[in-house]
Amino acid sequence: MKFTSLFTRLASRQTTVSRIARCMAIAALALFGTTEAKALNNWTYNSMPLPTLTDGTWAFSVIDHYDGTLTVTGLRSGQFPSPAQPLDFSGPVTDGGSGTYTIVGIGSGTCVIGNSDAATSLTLPNTVTNIGDNAFVNCANIQGGLDIPDSVVSIGSYAFANSGLNGQLVLGSAHGSALETIGSFAFWSDKFAGSLAFPDSLKSIGNYAFEYCTFDGVSHWGTLDTLCHSMFHWTSFATNLFVIPKQIESIGNYALYQTSFGGGNGLVVIGDGVKTIGDGSAPVISVNFDKISVPSTGVTFNNNVFAGGGGKAQIYFRGFFPASVASSVITYPPAGTTSYVSSAYVADWNVNNDPLAGGVDTSLGNIESGLATWQGYPIVVGEWDVSEYLGNFWWFTDSSQTVITDGTWE
């Protein structure tokens, strides 16, 4: 009798649960139009009537390369989620049956998601080799970080320019990425958190690629040997110690112009590998930092290398008088700008005392007396300590030394 009663109650409860489940299913049907469970971002490729990639919410035009690979080119009109949701291309792609496909390209000259604000974040698959020009330009709703997969070889011009990205930018792994090219304006005006690391594979960065961006600093320079035109123009770095390594040989126009370090009170150390700074036609480095340390032995200083900024600058030259000096290396400097030369090299600077040829003006006295000028501003003997920036570290004037990053010698 007791067992019969127990089974009767259980059966009654199961009936009640079943009724509740049916009611929920009916409600779901009314709300979504289907009760079939769907895994988000499991993509289906349909070749007819038009090549389309869809996950049931998003629908994109694609190029079929007829080798099992696809390039996503643009959003099908009106086929995007509302409200906005994450866009994840990393899910599997099938033809609805046993056929599988791989996404190898995203973007082909126009914004992939058009003018919609439907995507709140972006995930790319580790099969993509090319991110095209303008792929996600002006996508202000895409926020958070961005991981560029190791498979990516090239990032096109304006690919992520003026987006809402505000987390960490990861350009692939330092030693495993295939990334070779970053196009002009690729990340223009994006406000990232964390440090920027360039993979060893990177060979070319287009002009203005990181203009108006924000970063904590640069943690890995890869194999780069050039800071291109306007590379960090108007960019803000949280660090107050910015070290450009010895591997950098050339710094282009506007590369560090109106750039901010540590809120405007930073130390910029340019490594001993630099031989040419700018081409003379435009400013290169703002003198709105607290200190700038730059090599001089064998270096060509064109006009406008140092240009006016928000506060007085202290420019420390490490080495002998430069190989070549223009007459207007410092232009529009703020009052109080002073140049410094180590006592080990001051005699050589004193000898080069033709101000019309870019040399030191010693007509009122030599550098040791504190009466000489260079480029119209004082030049004095200076042995300087930067311990306020990095422990008890002193800069070594010996050109055989490399520069430091993160407190250790490279």
Explain what you see:
The strands form 9 sheets. The protein has a 7-stranded mixed β-sheet with strand order 20-23-26-29-32-34-33, with no helix packed on it. The chain has a 6-stranded mixed β-barrel with strand order 1-2-3-4-7-6. A 5-stranded parallel β-sheet has the order 18-21-24-27-30, with no helix packed on it. Helices cover 9% and strands 27% of the residues. By secondary structure, the chain is mainly beta. The longest helix is centred in the N-terminal third of the chain and has 31 residues, at 2-32. The chain has helices at 2-32, 346-351, and strands at 43-46, 52-54, 59-64, 69-75, 85-88, 93-94, 100-106, 119-123, 130-131, 146-147, 154-155, 169-170, 181-182, 196-197, 204-205, 214-215, 218-220, 226-227, 236-237, 241-244, 250-251, 260-261, 267-270, 276-277, 285-286, 291-295, 300-301, 306-307, 314-318, 324-325, 330-331, 338-341, 373-374, 377-381, 404-405, 408-409.
Keywords:
410 residues; mainly beta; 7-stranded mixed beta sheet; 6-stranded mixed β-barrel; 2 helices; 9% helix; elongated; disordered N terminus; disordered C terminus
Query: Judging from the principal axes of the Cα atoms, what is the shape?
Result: elongated
- Major beta sheet summary: 7 strands, mixed
Count of DSSP helices? 2
| Beta-strand fraction estimate | 25-35%
Strand order of the largest sheet: 20-23-26-29-32-34-33
Unreliable segments (pLDDT under 50, ≥5 consecutive)? 1-40, 390-410
The gyration radius over C-alpha positions equals 30 Å
Give average pLDDT, whole number: 83
Number of strands: 36
Task: Determine the fraction of residues in helical runs and give it as a percent range.
Answer: under 10%
Tell me the quaternary state. Answer: single chain
Helical/strand content category: mainly beta
> How far apart, in Å, are the first and last alpha carbons?
85 Å
